Recover the amino acids of this structure.
């Protein structure tokens, strides 16, 4: 290691995050202590894990522990641990950069509005850098477990764009973070305050946290343990308060908003494990990033094994946070081994069911469920295609906009089944590009007239999702805008022998598969209908966005022969004007679907001519 003190610049994203954090988190500033204690606790976890292979790392008398030391004279608060520690390379990497992909984009999305940014930064997770909310200088001294006393390192920064790194001798392994507190953060030199914050946020930490108050006057140095230091998930449920559960959630998730709900279970027998799973109240910024961290914290007999163990839940439940402690797994279990390990597959199946039950139960609380759905609804939809074994349970979690409840996304498939008349044997839905396009679609006219509810789907994933969902509780799902519509006996017979149908058909032959009389429309003159097996516009766009050619398919134009426009057309002679009107009829049906006519300039010309004549 270099003996000289070296100066490094923070990665640009770090500087920006620091600046934003100091300004937006001021009113939440005590979270810095939770974050630094969390890091210390993680470092102790990692040491214990490493000591499984190298027991000498846990030298006698060196049980993992965390200490807080107040020095009123120097104006410092020190958070120290004897955990895994860091070397020079580690500190430069860990305390000088942010390695999460998408960070730049995330930071660009912050608005400068303190309140909104505080929320967003919570989504990001603040971590070590939160030290600068209360400190105008931070010194970190560390030595990696298992290295020589001379391999210590000191990192120091005022958070203004640069940090220094130098080699030091350090007797203890592990890390000490020394906060030189800002003048307005001196309250954290008060042992009473520290006790209160630790009790509030970090009581559940599984390693002892001691508060050391230096000798003062005749009083000797005092060390007092502040927490019970047992793994929270190992304690009986009835002894754990909601507040403790919420604080533990924040500890493992780095979120600073409460979780919506949790489930804590101990399963005994051959496949023994304890799980504590949380549903967050908001999505992390990188929910859709492929490389984002996800998964549970894995422990084996309370020994931390790994973060982000993804194998215990399917992809579409990647937003669940929590801990799994499986005492019968081998301590040396690796990510690769987890992949195909029989017991893990079984735990995964059981945890998946548990989460689905938890979500079902959350559905009883309309307000909380609305929050959940707005954050994670899209991801749950992935489960319809991904988890065929649990498809019905996943489908029960879906919420839709509905023709019966405009403007609200709150109708479940069960509610739909409950609302529908007994003789209706189908669930109808409509796909559109936006909620308003769905609500105003001409396809709804006949359903409205007959009082039949239609679910309105306008998320980009919806077409993909319903392609996997044929039926729910044995009732078929039917696209209201596809194929020939059969609304039972009540459907009025359409007159396809009308000569106008043939005339329109021959003029529009290049653009449509066929023209036919409709039973779908009441107020509109025409609409487009896709055949059952044709690709819809959402899937078409998804394919095109992925650079794949989408097969060409022509829609059917259905026309409302009772409409005055069609009646007027029937009276018109053959000729250019009739052809233009036929083309416009098709163009406006496309517009009503949110599609652009193939030749917009020609449409504009025809419209102009029509307007001139009308005026
Ligand atoms: N006390 C410590 N001992 C050892 N390593 C530490 C300690 N504190 C921080 N680190 C290292 O620095 C890294 C960055 O810490 P930071 O708190 O910023 O992020 P994080 O804990 O990885 O993520 P987040 O807090 O966003 O979940 C940690 O991943 C860890 O490797």
């Amino acid at each position: 290691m270099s003996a000289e003190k070296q100066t490094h610049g923070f990665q640009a994203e770090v500087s920006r995050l620091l600046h934003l954090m100091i300004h937006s988190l001021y009113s939440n500033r005590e979270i810095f202590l939770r974050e630094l204690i969390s890091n210390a606790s993680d470092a102790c976890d990692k040491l214990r894990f490493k000591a499984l292979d190298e027991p000498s790392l846990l030298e006698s008398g060196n049980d993992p522990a965390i200490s807080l030391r107040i020095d009123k004279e120097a104006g410092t608060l020190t958070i120290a641990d004897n955990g895994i520690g860091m070397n020079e390379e580690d500190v430069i990497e860990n305390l000088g950069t942010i390695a999460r992909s998408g960070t730049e984009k995330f930071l660009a999305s912050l608005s400068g509005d303190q309140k909104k940014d505080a929320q967003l930064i919570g989504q990001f997770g603040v971590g070590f850098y939160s030290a600068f909310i209360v400190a105008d200088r931070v010194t970190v001294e560390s030595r990696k477990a298992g290295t020589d006393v001379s391999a210590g390192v000191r990192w120091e920064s005022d958070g203004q764009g640069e940090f220094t790194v130098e080699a030091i001798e350090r007797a203890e392994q592990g890390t000490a973070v020394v906060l030189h507190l800002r003048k307005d953060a001196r309250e954290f030199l008060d042992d009473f305050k520290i006790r209160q914050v630790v009790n509030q946020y970090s009581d559940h930490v599984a390693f002892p946290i001691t508060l050391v108050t230096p000798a003062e006057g005749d009083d000797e140095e005092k060390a007092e343990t502040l927490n019970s230091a047992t793994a929270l998930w190992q304690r009986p449920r009835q002894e754990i308060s909601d507040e403790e559960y919420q604080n533990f959630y924040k500890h493992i998730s780095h979120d600073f908003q409460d979780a919506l709900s949790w489930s804590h279970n101990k399963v005994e027998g051959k496949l023994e494990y304890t799980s504590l799973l949380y549903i967050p109240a908001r999505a992390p910024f990188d929910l859709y990033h492929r490389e984002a961290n996800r998964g549970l914290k894995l422990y084996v007999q309370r020994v931390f094994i790994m973060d982000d163990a993804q194998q215990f839940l399917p992809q579409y439940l990647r937003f669940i946070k929590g801990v799994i402690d499986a005492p019968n797994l081998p301590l040396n279990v690796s990510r690769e081994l987890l992949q195909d390990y029989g017991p893990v597959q079984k735990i995964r199946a059981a945890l998946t069911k548990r989460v689905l039950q938890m979500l079902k139960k959350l559905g009883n609380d309309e307000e909380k469920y609305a929050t959940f759905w707005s954050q994670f609804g899209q991801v749950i939809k992935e489960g319809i295609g991904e988890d065929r074994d649990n498809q019905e349970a996943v489908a029960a979690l879906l919420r839709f906009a509905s023709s019966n409840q405009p403007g609200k996304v709150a109708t479940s498939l069960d509610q739909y089944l409950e609302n529908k008349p007994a003789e209706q044997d189908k669930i109808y839905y409509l796909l559109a590009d936006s909620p308003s396009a769905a609500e105003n679609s001409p396809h709804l006219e006949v359903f409205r007239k007959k009082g039949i509810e239609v679910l309105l789907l306008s998320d980009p994933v919806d077409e993909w999702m319903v392609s996997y969902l044929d039926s729910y509780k044995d009732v078929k799902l039917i696209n209201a805008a596809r194929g020939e519509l059969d609304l039972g006996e009540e459907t009025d017979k359409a007159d396809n022998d009308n000569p106008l149908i043939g005339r329109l058909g021959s003029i529009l032959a290049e653009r449509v598969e066929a023209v036919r009389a409709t039973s779908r429309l009441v107020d509109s003159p025409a609409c487009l209908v896709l055949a059952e097996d044709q690709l819809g516009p959402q899937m078409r766009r998804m394919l095109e966005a992925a650079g794949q050619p989408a097969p060409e398919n022509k829609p059917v134009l259905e026309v409302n022969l009772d409409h005055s426009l069609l009646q007027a057309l029937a009276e018109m002679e053959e000729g250019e004007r009739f052809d233009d009107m036929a083309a416009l009829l098709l163009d406006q049906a496309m517009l009503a679907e949110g599609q652009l006519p193939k030749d917009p300039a020609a449409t504009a010309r025809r419209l102009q001519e029509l307007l001139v004549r009308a005026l």
Notes: The mean pLDDT is 89. Residues 580 and 606 are 6 Å apart (CA to CA). The longest strand covers residues 135-143.
